[in-house]
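TICKET: design request
STATUS: open
ATTACHED STRUCTURE:
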């Protein structure tokens, strides 16, 4: 009679009567799939671990969600920041009828107005060119003497030239001597194999004179581009400057002349920048509400909620966002009291947004700026009246509210620290549980191995007894 099942004689297998136990139970004296049985038992044992893993994943998902909300709030703060400063509402812009004639940059100190500008002459820098030399720029030129250059009313510049000097050497000497006067010298190949020394001034409107005292041949420098000053008219008044960049003709306005011609320049308050900045803020505000709605919903059909549904901190954030925007600054001051008066709302009456998203009535906002600019500034930034007892505008207060959440020790960093602590605690629990599960697995494997060994011994004894009985009958 043969034992039921199979025997594994491979290295590491269970050794009868010994102490070594394989990681898998391969003997099947019971006829059962003991390995599968052990795995199923371990699945039951791993249920607490699976729950911890699920809890850790939920914490990780919530942490990622809050970090996304924090990034969106920080982006909203960036969009809002320029609108909380009075200087944003006082910025000027310049519009030009013909940008090819001139360009303009304007500062906040510029006075609003219109200017007609006629450019009659552009400022030019003088250019000197020598005769042509049929020599390599590094070859000795075989001329000697003294070169004297005078820029405007400055002291003369003297350059000593020796016979062994090449064109490149002469250019280096002129550049070194004239470094403080804006003199730039280069060697140009005007024709194939023929080179020339070219001297240029960096500054326009300046004159340059040259004197050459050479033995024999000289450089032969001549003025090929004559110096000129910029001449132009502003509203019929003639002006003259050394440069094509004029910053002292119209206070707060810098002109860059490009070509001869006429153009009109109008300086006005930059309402377009304010409108575009406000639109960008509203878009980012609505985007934040969309993000919050993604995590804060309840589906009555499936009876499931969003990842952060019911989170008290999220409910507080949402409440403070809405109350900050739609609060009133009071009627103790003249002007506007709430944002609806300047065109910021959740939509027209009867068609307002249920989710609280903002919209801008641009024409109404521009009308408010034109009618009472100080009132708009006071409402949004709170800086319209330095003597005002309430210096917090709508956006200024809203900015402070959001910073309570994103600052270094704000609500969201503290919440993130809580998530980190919870994650570490669960990781420790999982590590301890994994160790206990390993011990449980080893114990089950030893127990089933011992069972198989016991059954094998019983089978062996049964076989021996059968043989003895058969031997007794055979003697009879």
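STATUS: resolved
RESOLUTION: sequence designed for all positions
ATTACHED SEQUENCE:
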């Amino acid at each position: 009679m043969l034992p039921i099942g199979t025997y594994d004689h491979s290295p590491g297998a269970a050794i009868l009567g010994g102490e070594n136990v394989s990681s898998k139970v391969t003997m099947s004296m019971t006829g059962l799939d003991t390995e599968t049985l052990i795995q199923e038992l371990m699945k039951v044992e791993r249920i607490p671990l699976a729950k911890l893993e699920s809890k850790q994943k939920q914490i990780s998902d919530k942490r990622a969600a809050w970090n996304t909300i924090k990034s969106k709030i920080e982006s909203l703060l960036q969009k809002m920041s320029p609108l909380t400063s009075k200087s944003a509402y006082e910025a000027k812009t310049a519009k030009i009828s013909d940008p090819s004639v001139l360009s303009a940059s304007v500062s906040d100190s510029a006075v609003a107005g219109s200017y007609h500008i006629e450019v009659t002459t552009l400022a030019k820098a003088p250019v000197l060119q020598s005769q042509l030399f049929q020599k390599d720029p590094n070859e000795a030129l075989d001329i000697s003497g003294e070169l004297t250059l005078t820029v405007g009313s400055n002291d003369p510049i003297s350059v000593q030239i020796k016979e062994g000097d090449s064109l490149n050497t002469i250019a280096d000497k002129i550049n070194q001597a004239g470094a403080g006067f804006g003199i730039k010298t280069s060697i140009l190949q005007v024709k194939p194999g023929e080179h020339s020394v070219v001297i240029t001034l960096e500054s326009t409107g300046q004159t340059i004179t040259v004197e050459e005292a050479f033995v024999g041949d000289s450089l032969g420098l001549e003025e090929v581009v004559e110096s000129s000053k910029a001449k132009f008219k502003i509203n019929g008044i003639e002006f003259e400057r050394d440069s094509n960049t004029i910053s002292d003709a119209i206070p707060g306005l810098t002109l860059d002349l490009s070509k001869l011609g006429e153009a009109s320049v109008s300086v006005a308050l930059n309402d377009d920048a304010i409108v575009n900045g406000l639109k960008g803020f509203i878009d980012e505000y609505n985007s934040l509400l969309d993000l919050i709605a993604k995590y804060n919903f309840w589906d009555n059909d499936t009876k499931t909620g969003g990842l952060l549904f019911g989170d008290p901190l999220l409910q507080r954030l949402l409440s403070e966002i809405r109350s900050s925007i739609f609060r009133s600054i009071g009627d103790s001051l003249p002007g506007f009291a709430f944002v609806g008066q300047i065109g910021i709302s959740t939509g027209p009456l009867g068609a307002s947004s249920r989710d609280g998203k903002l919209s801008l009535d641009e024409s109404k906002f521009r009308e408010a700026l034109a009618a009472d600019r100080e009132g708009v500034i006071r409402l949004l930034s709170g800086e319209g009246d330095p003597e005002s007892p309430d210096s917090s505008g709508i956006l200024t207060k809203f900015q402070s509210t959001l910073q309570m959440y994103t600052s270094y020790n704000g609500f969201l960093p503290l919440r993130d620290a809580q998530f980190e602590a919870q994650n570490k605690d669960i990781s420790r629990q999982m590590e301890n549980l994994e160790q206990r599960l390993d011990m449980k697995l080893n114990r089950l494997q030893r127990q089933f191995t011992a069972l198989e060994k016991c059954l094998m011994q019983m089978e062996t004894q049964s076989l021996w007894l059968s043989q003895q009985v058969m031997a007794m009958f055979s003697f009879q």
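CLOSING REMARK: The chain has a mean pLDDT of 85. Residues 49 and 430 are 6 Å apart (CA to CA).
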